[in-house]
Amino acid sequence: MHFRIRAATKEDCKDISRMIMELAVYEKMPDQVKISHEELERDGFSQNPFFECLVAEVPEEHKSEGGFTVVGYALYFYTYSTWKGPSVYLEDLYVMPEYRGNGIGKGLLCKVAEVGKKKQCVRLQLSVLNWNTPSRDFYAAKGAQDLTVSEGWHFIRFEGQSLDDLANEAPKD
Amino acid sequence: MHFRIRAATKEDCKDISRMIMELAVYEKMPDQVKISHEELERDGFSQNPFFECLVAEVPEEHKSEGGFTVVGYALYFYTYSTWKGPSVYLEDLYVMPEYRGNGIGKGLLCKVAEVGKKKQCVRLQLSVLNWNTPSRDFYAAKGAQDLTVSEGWHFIRFEGQSLDDLANEAPKD
Fold first, then answer.
1. What ipTM goes with this model?
2. GO terms for molecular function, please (chains A, B) (predicted)?
3. Using the beta-carbon criterion (under 8 Å), do A158 and B144 form an inter-chain contact?
């Protein structure tokens, strides 16, 4: 199937927002999504955006059952390793189920790698859930390392009250 | 002991670079550090910096055995959750061994939380090695969640040849 990958624009935020929810349903955490398409527009498409995004688009004649032509997205941002330098972090990679098996996911992943290399990034990183073996196998087959397995890295998060408590205890200038 | 936490400047990069190496030695991977202080200056202190950094400074009369007054640092950048919005990621938090136990590490952590909250961040995230129980306990005591344990998130990384391979397979525009 023919598809095109291009940089997302503000006008894509409704489609991206719809697919963020579809991905959260797949990840079994749909009630966690608090971000609206208006917030995506503000956070990704104003000055000093927090993220960049690519979308995959199919021609009108291949539109989805629901009538959509934007059928996948990859949302990423730049991070930094104090050992190796600039890196790109792939926060979300998603292709609608009826479009899988056409190389769209691989196309999005490779395009993010290409964008990252152009920005001098030396790494492309992402996170995946333990039980999500299709994704873990997909990345492993492409040469990725699982650092949680090989080096024992754990993810730590402060949010809500614990984050407020930290901020309130910050030393005064 | 009196200490002051302030935003790092370009002139601090030699000190930061020295402490990055000290932290890598503690993490048992000193041969992984490829970033020089010149690269830190370029990546963090030019237009569109990849990171921000705070340093902890002690008065001249408390300088270290090696003669240093910059004795700790916290290096961080902004990330984005498509579920919750802007987040701050603490890449490195380090205090020189002879200055530990004075609240400097906690001060740096809280200051990063405060900076993040000012930027509307809803999360502060970081990674820690499995065997590093002092750090894991420190974060847990402050209310952090270990997402690798509670939700099963794994870190995945492409670098070197596997990253080049991806980029080379990117679909042409």
1. 0.92
2. N-acetyltransferase activity
3. yes
Active-site residues of B: which are they? 139
Catalytic residues of A: 139
What residue ranges define each of the domains in chain B, with the CATH number in brackets? Answer: 4-148 (3.40.630.30)
Using a CB-CB distance cutoff of 8 angstroms, which residues of chain A are in contact with residue B117?
Answer: 163-164, 167
List CB contacts (< 8 A) between B104 and chain A: none
Q: Which residues of B touch A126 (CB under 8 A)?
A: 156
| Residue pointed to by tokens 């002879």 | B98
Closest CA to B143 of A46, A159, A54: A159
Q: What is the pLDDT of residue B28?
A: 87
Residue A144 phi/psi, 5-degree rounding, is -75, 150
Q: What is the pLDDT of residues A109-132, one digit of tens each?
A: 999 999 999 999 999 999 999 999
In which order are the strands placed within the sheet that holds A70-81?
Answer: A4-7, A52-57, A70-81, A85-95, A123-129, B153-159, A145-146
In angstroms, the CA A149 to CA B86 distance is 28
Which residues does B40 contact at the CB level (< 8 Å), separation at least 6?
A: A82, B13, B16, B17
Best interface-test mutation with B: which of A39, A83, A145 has the largest number of B CBs within 10 A? A83
What sections of chain A are H helices per DSSP?
13-26, 37-44, 104-118, 133-141, 147-150, 161-168
Asked whether the beta carbons of residue A20 and residue B163 sit closer than 8 angstroms, the reply is no
CA distance A32 to A43: 18
